[in-house]
Design a protein that fits this description.
Blueprint (H helix, E strand, L loop, with lengths): L1 H19 L14 E9 L2 E12 L8 E7 L4 E11 L2 E11 L7 E6 L5 E6 L4 E8 L1
Antiparallel strand pairs: 1-2, 1-8, 2-3, 3-4, 4-5, 5-6, 6-7, 7-8
């Protein structure tokens, strides 16, 4: 009877080890951007122009779906963001619609994760580039 249990113990340990090392469900890469971020944007068309923004990204975002919003508190407008893609720590988005204010929901931009946990936001238009460092709130 003891030899039967001695044989089963190594088999049980191997089964537990293999099941623990099996592939797990990959985490959603967009979740690294989830949260509320704020910072100041600078503009290439006017060195004196600065605008405060708040970006909110929920968890569980998928490409092609609405994934948060950008609130420009300086000019008082808010735009909905749709996730275009996630590529190597870069969150690419398009503005889907204007939620409030006079800012047209045109174009999009990128959020780039930094090693220190901050994000750099860059928004390109035909007239200017807006760029700024965002910190998690």
């Amino acid at each position: 009877m003891n030899t039967k249990y001695l044989f089963l113990l190594p088999v049980l340990l191997v089964v537990l080890f293999v099941s623990a090392c099996g592939p797990s469900k990959p985490a959603n890469p967009a979740n690294r951007f989830a949260g509320t971020w704020s910072g100041t944007m600078s503009f290439t068309d006017n060195a004196n122009r600065k605008e405060e923004i708040i970006v909110t990204v929920p968890t569980g975002c998928a490409a092609g779906n609405v994934c948060g919003d950008l609130n420009n508190t300086t000019v008082k407008c808010q735009s909905e963001m749709t996730l275009a893609a996630i590529n190597d720590g870069v969150f690419e988005y398009k503005f889907s619609k204007t939620l409030s204010g006079e800012c047209p929901a045109l174009g999009g931009g990128i959020l780039m994760l930094q090693r220190d946990g901050s994000i750099i936001r860059e928004h390109r238009t035909p007239d200017f580039i807006a760029r700024g460092l965002l910190m998690r709130k």
